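4.2 Preliminary Data

To establish feasibility before requesting continued support, the project team ran the inverse folding procedure on a target of 445 residues. The structure was first converted into the token representation described in Section 3, and no sequence information of any kind was made available to the design step. The complete token record follows.
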């Protein structure tokens, strides 16, 4: 497998005339044709349309009128994000004929920056827990994770340089870890949710699946920013600049989470990566989880179930059997939750978001394993979000980077967590860690 160049390289080659966007699109479409029968990452493609867009963008580039930093660069879009020229079905029979008449804000911003929407990527039903048909490019007998299954698999397979994902529990971080790529979840409220199908509105995040941290920073800066049409959007300056880390960043380690790895090999690989960072000059400090962490998973679950059931209540009242088992169970449990339980969970969320900042008193970033184990064998599960959902609950930004392969050749990753709104420091540290660890393996697909 030959990986695509970085987004910065692609964009520069297009602006300089060294690369025609049409040729780049043909490369991506050829890779999709080669890999799609094996991994099933895409749910909607329109090759003729994207070829026409590429030709228009090529002409603009030749005239020196690039639209923005992504001019001519193809991007995949998870199929819960509205696109005016593709169906948005959310992996559900309910939306089989749903073609939105507008783009989600994040898609608008991609197009304004010159990106080509290559197609829609597979999602689990309504971004829930029921596995989709997508398979892991490293081993098609393993799950790619979820719910951003198609986005992660498409990027890992070299079919597209970046794809939009979403996360309510661990739906960016876990597929990134399982597929050996970078997953970037910005701070809650950073990227607009207008035109995105909900799972739980106070936990939902939009983010990126990419090959490298720099790519995540470039695309993340494009899609982020205040949107008055999204009531949860926050007006806060956007700075995703990657700065050189000299000296190396001070890192906090949550030893309690490393010990919860379900496989010794995963724990050893992630700890070995930490040792590599220390050898590279990083200082590491043990940090304690706040007391409110003890209830974080239970409180996160209550919020997700309550808000998810509220969003789907009307559909559920009409055709409950159209929902797949796991999303149906979420709705059923959510509809039975007393209001007092939801209120207590929301109180906990506010307290936890405050308490968690104590961990950053002496460090720039927190490092944890990204997942308790590599991608599970089989397609019965999307994996365990144990190490991811606390950061969705808190709204803190995260970056996942691959650090090694286990004995079965499956990727193992670490997760970096930053302060609210401090994506520049987080991305800078992540890029430094990425360069020190130097993971460059690719799936043999």
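Position-by-position output of the design step:
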């Amino acid at each position: 497998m030959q990986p695509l160049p970085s987004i910065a390289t692609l964009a520069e080659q297009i602006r300089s005339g060294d690369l025609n966007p049409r040729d780049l699109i043909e490369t991506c479409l050829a890779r999709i044709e080669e890999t799609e029968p094996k991994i099933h990452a895409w749910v909607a493609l329109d090759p003729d349309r994207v070829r026409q867009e590429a030709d228009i963008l090529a002409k603009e580039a030749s005239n020196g009128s690039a639209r923005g930093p992504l001019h001519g660069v193809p991007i995949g879009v998870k199929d819960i994000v509205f696109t005016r020229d593709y169906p948005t079905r959310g992996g559900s029979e309910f939306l089989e004929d749903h073609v939105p008449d507008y783009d989600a804000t994040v898609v608008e911003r991609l197009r304004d920056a010159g990106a080509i929407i290559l197609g829609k990527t597979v999602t689990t039903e309504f971004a829930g827990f029921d596995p989709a048909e997508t398979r892991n490019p490293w081993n098609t007998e393993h799950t790619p994770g979820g719910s951003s299954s198609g986005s992660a698999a498409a990027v890992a397979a070299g079919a597209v340089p970046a794809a939009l994902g979403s996360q309510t529990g661990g739906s960016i971080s876990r597929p990134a870890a399982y597929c050996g790529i970078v997953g970037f979840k910005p701070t809650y409220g950073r990227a607009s949710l207008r035109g995105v199908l909900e799972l739980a509105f106070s936990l939902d995040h939009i983010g990126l699946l990419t090959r490298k941290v720099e790519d995540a920073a470039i695309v993340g800066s494009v899609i982020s920013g205040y949107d008055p049409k999204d009531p949860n959007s926050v007006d806060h300056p956007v700075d995703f600049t990657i700065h050189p880390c000299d000296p190396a960043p001070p890192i906090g380690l949550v030893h309690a989470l490393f010990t919860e790895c379900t496989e010794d090999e995963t724990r050893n690989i992630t700890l070995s990566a930490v040792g590599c960072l220390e050898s590279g000059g990083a200082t590491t400090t043990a940090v304690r989880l706040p007391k409110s962490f003890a209830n974080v998973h239970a409180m996160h679950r209550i919020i997700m179930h309550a808000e998810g059931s509220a969003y789907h209540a009307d559909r559920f009242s009409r055709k409950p059997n159209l929902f797949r088992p796991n999303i149906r169970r979420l709705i059923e449990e959510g509809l039975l939750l007393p209001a007092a339980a939801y209120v207590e969970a929301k109180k906990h969320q506010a307290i936890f978001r405050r308490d968690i900042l104590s961990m950053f008193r002496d460090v720039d970033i927190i490092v944890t394993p990204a997942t308790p184990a590599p991608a599970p064998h089989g397609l019965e599960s999307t994996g365990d979000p144990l190490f991811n959902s606390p950061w969705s609950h808190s709204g803190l930004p995260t970056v996942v980077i691959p650090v090694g392969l286990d004995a079965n050749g499956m990727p193992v990753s670490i997760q970096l967590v930053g302060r609210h709104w401090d994506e520049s420091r987080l991305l800078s540290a992540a890029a430094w860690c990425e360069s020190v660890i130097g993971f460059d393996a690719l799936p043999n697909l």
